[in-house]
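Deliverable D2.4 — example input (structure tokens):
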């Protein structure tokens, strides 16, 4: 997979989670032993990135199942359902979270096995979700690499890398595959205020893995494009509506508009678990509002006056008309997206 670290590592009775809040300074793994631990690592962003959140929640359902002490199937399903609902509520925007929890719950309810056996099987299902995510990323890499030309400089926003997935990455996976195929590419990483996923995570991840990466602050992207320094943009996604509108880290919308104004392709890479067929457009996407302190401080230090009003939406929505193509594990979708998304999800 050619990354020098792992984001999460399933063990026999727990899962190790890399605490991304401590990067790039320190590599520390949290031992996730209960479904409450799973809720906490997602809620407080020790693990983040839509696919990584989904995989973590899948193991969270299994850990929850392990704690249920009953042989009664009805009671078992009722308790498991409540735990699943709790996990889904940890963060509202990433579709992969509810997708993974619901897949685990449906898997549990299928068949006639007793609770103990279902719990054992749930571990294997969570492992399948974990491996499928890595596999999907590698396939996306294969499809997406063809869009990236030798010698290009590509701008990315937030972190859609191995750290945001079970491994390899979505947007950064495409860039890994392009590099592995022998193309010479340079990457510009937006720092991604306020949580600094670009500066702390993307810059770290790409540097670890030997990429030519340059860090810029978010407000520099337009000027870099104006000077002809950026050939393409590529980002991940947290939720994609059935018309192709894309929710991703706040600031993605600005990058897409800038790319459009400078005639630069704007690519999104996401697995099918990020697509939400239940919503017709981005207007229906719930945008998570995060604590004021993320805006008011940097590394714990105040950068604004006490009592100032703050807004902190963690995501924004880029309308489909600004998206040049969506790279998935089943192929590349081009506009208009509705038909392609239906086909991707097997919807008649
Ligand atoms: O708040 P975060 O760090 O969970 O937000 C992550 C993003 O917005 C990523 O770009 C997205 O999840 C795609 S990750 C493959």
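Example output (designed residues):
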């Amino acid at each position: 997979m050619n990354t020098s670290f792992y984001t999460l590592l399933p063990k026999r009775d727990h899962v190790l989670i890399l605490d991304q809040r401590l990067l790039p300074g320190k590599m520390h793994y949290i031992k996730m032993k209960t479904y409450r631990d799973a809720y906490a690592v997602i809620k407080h962003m020790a693990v983040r990135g839509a696919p990584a959140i989904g995989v973590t929640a899948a193991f969270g359902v299994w850990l929850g199942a392990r704690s249920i002490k009953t042989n009664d199937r009805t009671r078992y399903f009722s308790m498991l359902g409540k735990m699943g609902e709790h996990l889904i509520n940890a963060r509202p925007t990433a579709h992969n979270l509810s997708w993974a929890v619901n897949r685990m719950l449906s898997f549990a309810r299928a068949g006639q096995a007793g609770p103990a056996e279902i719990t054992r099987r749930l571990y294997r299902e969570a492992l399948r979700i974990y491996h499928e995510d890595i596999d999907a990323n590698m396939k996306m890499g294969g499809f997406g690499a063809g869009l990236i030309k030798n010698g290009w400089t590509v701008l990315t926003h937030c972190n859609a890398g191995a750290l945001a997935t079970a491994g390899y990455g979505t947007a950064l996976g495409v860039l890994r595959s392009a590099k592995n195929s022998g193309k010479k590419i340079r990457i510009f990483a937006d720092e991604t205020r306020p949580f600094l996923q670009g500066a702390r995570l993307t810059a770290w991840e790409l540097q670890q893995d030997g990429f030519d990466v340059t860090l810029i602050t978010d407000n520099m992207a337009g000027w870099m494009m104006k000077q002809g320094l950026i050939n393409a943009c590529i980002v991940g996604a947290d939720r994609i509506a059935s018309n192709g509108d894309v929710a991703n880290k706040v600031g993605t919308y600005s990058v897409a508009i800038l790319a459009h104004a400078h005639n630069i392709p704007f690519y999104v890479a996401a697995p099918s678990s990020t697509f939400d067929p239940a919503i017709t457009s981005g207007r229906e996407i719930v945008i998570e509002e995060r604590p004021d302190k993320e805006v008011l401080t940097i590394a714990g230090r105040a950068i604004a006056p006490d009592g100032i009003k703050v807004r902190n939406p963690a995501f924004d929505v880029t309308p489909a008309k600004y998206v040049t193509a969506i790279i998935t594990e089943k192929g590349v979708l081009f506009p208009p997206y509705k038909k392609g998304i239906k086909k991707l999800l097997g919807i008649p």
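Residues 48-51, 94, 158, 160, 164-165, 170, 197, 235-238, 248-249, 314 surround MRU (CB under 6 Å).
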